Amino acid sequence: MLNIEDLFKGRHFDREIIILCVRWYLRFKLSFRDLVEMMAERGVSLTHTTIMRWIQRYVPEFEKRWNCFACRAGGSWRVDETYVKIKGRWTYLYRAVDKEGKTVDFLLRVKRDVAAAKAFFRRAFKNQGRLPQKITLDGYQASHRAALEVLGEHRSGKRTKIRSSKYLNNLIEQDHRSIKLRLGPMLGLKRFRNASITIAGIELMHRIRKGQFKLGKLRIKNKTAPEMWNAVLAA
C-alpha cells in the first residue's frame, strides 16, 4: 500500500483539494459542474473531467485504507437488491445490512439471477470473515437458492437460518434510499466499471456516517472531517 505522499505524488493540485472534491462529490448531491463552480469561488480552477478522474483513481485507494479500520457487522443480515441505471440499462445493486442498519456489503451486477446472488454472498462472507446466524430475504427464489448453495460450501453453513420476510426487510429497503438519493443527481452513469467505483465511494461515505469504523487508535475524536481523512490515509 502506497504511503500518503506517494499516493498523491505528481498531482498538479494539493492533496487537500483532491480529498475535499472526492469527499464532497460522494457525500452530497452535487454534480461535477457544481463542484467546479464551488472550487472556482475559492480560487481553484478545475474542469469536471479532472474531478471525474480523481473519483476513479482515488476511491479504491480510500476504500482500501478505511477498511483497515472497519468494524465487523452483526450476525443477522437483511439482503435485498435495488436498481441502478447505467447508460440507459437497468443493472442490479445487491446490498445487505445487519439488524442495526450497519452496512454488511454490496455488489453491482449486470443481471439479477442465481449467479449474481452467489457472487454477492461469497463476497460478503469473505469480507466479513464469518457466516451470519440469520439471512433475511424477500420472496425472490434465485436469492434463496444462491444463499443455500453458497452456505453449502462451508462446513458450518447449516447453522445459518434463511428466512423470508417482507416486514423485516423494510430496514434494507429504507437503507437503499440513501444510496439512490445520491445517485439521482448524477444524471446517469455511463460505464459499468466507473459506476462500480462511484457506488463504492458512496457506500464508503454511508458507512462513515453510520460510524462503522474504529478510529480510536488514531486519536482523532472530535476532530474535523479533513483531519480525520488525513489521519486515516496516512495510517
Architecture blueprint of SSEs:
Elements: H1 4-7, H2 15-27, H3 32-40, H4 48-67, E1 76-86, E2 89-98, E3 103-109, H5 114-128, E4 134-137, H6 141-151, E5 161-164, H7 170-183, H8 192-210, H9 225-234
Parallel strand pairs: 1-4, 4-5
Antiparallel strand pairs: 1-2, 2-3
Helix pairs in contact: 3-4, 4-8, 5-6, 7-8
GO molecular function, one term: DNA binding
Protein name: Transposase
Keywords: DNA recombination, DNA-binding, Transposition
What can you tell me about this protein's structure?
It comes from Methylocella tundrae. This is Transposase. GO terms for molecular function: DNA binding. Pfam families: DDE_Tnp_IS240 (PF13610). It contains 9 helices and 5 strands, in the order ααααβββαβαβααα. The chain is an alpha/beta fold. It has 2 domains: 4-69 and 213-234, no CATH class; 76-184, Ribonuclease H-like superfamily/Ribonuclease H (Nucleotidyltransferase, domain 5, 2-Layer Sandwich), CATH 3.30.420. A 5-stranded mixed β-sheet has the order 3-2-1-4-5, with helices on both faces. β2 (89-98) and β3 form a beta hairpin. The mean pLDDT is 93.
Nutshell version of this structure?
By secondary structure, the chain is of the alpha/beta class.
List the keywords.
single chain; about 240 residues; alpha/beta; Nucleotidyltransferase, domain 5; 9 helices; about 15% strand
The fold-level CATH name of the largest domain is Nucleotidyltransferase, domain 5
- Assess the beta-strand content as a share of residues: 15-25%
How many angstroms does the end-to-end distance come to? 11 Å
Structure class: alpha/beta
Count the DSSP helices. 9
Helix-strand string: HHHHEEEHEHEHHH
The rough form would be described as globular
What's the CATH architecture of the largest domain?
Answer: 2-Layer Sandwich
Largest sheet: 5 strands, mixed
What is Rg?
19 Å
Identify low-pLDDT runs.
none
Please provide the count of β strands. Answer: 5
CATH class of the largest domain: Alpha Beta
